[in-house]
Amino acid sequence: xxxxxxxxxxxxxxxxxxxxxxxxxxxxxxxxxxxxxxxxxxxxxxxxxxxxxxxxxxxxxxxxxxxxxxxxxxxxxxxxxxxxxxxxxxxxxxxxxxxxxxxxxxxxxxxxxxxxxxxxxxxxxxxxxxxxxxxxxxxxxxxxxxxxxxxxxxxxxxxxxxxxxxxxxxxxxxxxxxxxxxxxxxxxxxxxxxxxxxxxxxxxxxxxxxxxxxxxxxxxxxxxxxxxxxxxxxxxxxxxxxxxxxxxxxxxxxxxxxxxxxxxxxxxxxxxxxxxxxxxxxxxxxxxxxxxxxxxxxxxxxxxxxxxxxxxxxxxxxxxxxxxxxxxxxxxxxxxxxxxxxxxxxxxxxxxxxxxxxxxxxxxxxxxxxxxxxxxxxxxxxxxxxxxxxxxxxxxxxxxxxxxxxxxxxxxxxxxxxxxxxxxxxxxxxxxxxxxxxxxxxxxxxxxxxxxxxxxxxxxxxxxxxxxxxxxxxxxxxxxxxxxxxxxxxxxxxxxxxxxxxxxxxxxxxxxxxxxxxxxxxxxxxxxxxxxxxxxxxxxxxxxxxxxxxxxxxxxxxxxxxxxxxxxxxxxxxxxxxxxxxxxxxxxxxxxxxxxxxxxxxxxxxxxxxxxxxxxxxxxxxxxxxxxxxxxxxxxxxxxxxxxxxxxxxxxxxxxxxxxxxxxxxxxxxxxxxxxxxxxxxxxxxxxxxxxx
Length: 693
Fold this sequence. Notes:
The protein is of the alpha/beta class. It is about 50% helix and about 10% strand.
């Protein structure tokens, strides 16, 4: 029995046993395989627009923006601050807008429709879309301005979105894209002519750029010329976990509602689920510090080799439109916006900023809830907890068990109907043969075969690529199990005060996972409900008691979070024992990698490869900064990290010391000793891990 220290009445969550179903999806490639792609591209395209507005030409749209009161106000303000004539600032604004604006042309859209049909039929078995979501979107577009908010796991996302809307005769979106794409010869302009508008990754303090950008977006939204599409996460997720939402663009598209310029705005979450990710190995290498390839036309042409690969299926789920008006009811007092002229830019009030932040998290949670999971994500979760490999029969048996657990937690799982489990597992292994293989009836992760002798660093890197690539699939199911997993860790390892431990983990991991601000009690209740529902725990008299059949479930959940717990511990140990006083933010990531490399070779521990990921290192640092265990101090042009070693040690103690860290405590490693030197000494002593030998 474990005391839960409940600060609330026992469980308010509904005890509904409903699970998500995969029914209602249509494979849009089926028709493409049976009819002419040219006829499809050249067919009559006449989408219904918002309240029947007439489509606006690109030049007319730019004129409306340049003549707006808000932009003129900022131009005069910048003119006064800089001492330059307003006409010069106006010309600068015009240049910015010319660089930014889309030039949507139906002829280019038709070219992409034809080319993408060919590519998608080669790359994917199916592209499935929920028809009910399309019907809802069609209705929403006619009623209020629409903002499409897709998840972002691949470069393919924005092309896929436009392709689907064209297929269903819906208004094509205008899409916020990074400047990186604009530098691609020919392709950049073609993207612009298919609806992309290009923005800088960061604006800094450029008041004029921000004014042009925000007025351009708001003009399109107010007039309903086209749905606006952008990625709340701001960038592709290299880990395939949802990223903390960025609020800039969301603030812009919601502001017209606050100012009474539109009656409502519909936010439409879209979940795009890939059975196999085109960039899987590229992402793993980027997370390990290999520079991201620059977007270029030549790079695109070289990537043609992927056309010979099978990437399985894609599921695209258009969620229920979310009314900003309904969300804001009772949360935001819009009357305060009447106290100032609408054209004067104002910093969002705290109440408004809190509402936008909360809305962003809710939308990303909706994206997660509607992700369609394939059997491989369950298999990857099991393989990562058994890096030495599993017997195929055991993997099959455990996958069936995990499938039942996922469905009982309302996971959106696409499992082939009436197919024998053995066939489902073998099909998944065949599709992901680059990540896992079967040898002698045993399944294990594939590690790239070296062409010759490798250094310990190279061996470690190759193994880490394999683990991180596999982890990108496990990460897709984490949102289903996260809350009960945190409760399981709190029960099994940390303390008798389960709720306090859960709260600590919730705060610690709030950069790694989507945990809505203020939802900690609700999340704890959900975790308790789900563990009780599946029989893993009982709750007599508000205590939490593991049942006789609960050990496998709690053990699996503990293993699911173990890479994060160990990764954060390695970061804490580095900051306490190895970090120099002048450690800069730029030095932090390579320094942690180097520290762990020595630990890994010295101990042969194979459980913590994910700490080599820059994503985990950044999230761990963000958590320590938020918990005041580390501070940032700007010295000259560099940001230095000031470590409160007592606080970091305390966090390390709460996380719990695992065997690897404890073993390192008993071993002396000279500060200047290189990884290679350590490996050579260990080899002479017969202690080198087998994969390095």
